[in-house]
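Please review this one.

:::
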Amino acid sequence: MRTFMQFLLFMVLAIAVIVLAILLGDMGAWYFAWLVGTAMIVLIAAAGGVLLDTQDEHAAARRAAASADAR
C-alpha cells in the first residue's frame, strides 16, 4: 500500500510539473535555473558557515592545548 501511495504522489507531482511547464512556456527554463541557482547559493553559504565554525573550534582547541603546554 505504501508503494502505491508513493506512486500516486509522484504521479500527481509529475502532472503538476507538466501543467506548470505548459503554463510557463519559454520562461520555464529561466524559473528552473533561478530555483536551482538559489538553492545552490544557500547550500554553499551553509557549507561555508559550517567550515568557519569548524575552523574556529580547531583554533580554540589549539590555543587551549598551547596554553596547557605552557603551564
Remarks:
- Residues 2-70 form one domain.
- The chain has a mean pLDDT of 91.
- The chain has two helices and no strands.
- The CA atoms of residues 20 and 69 lie 64 Å apart.
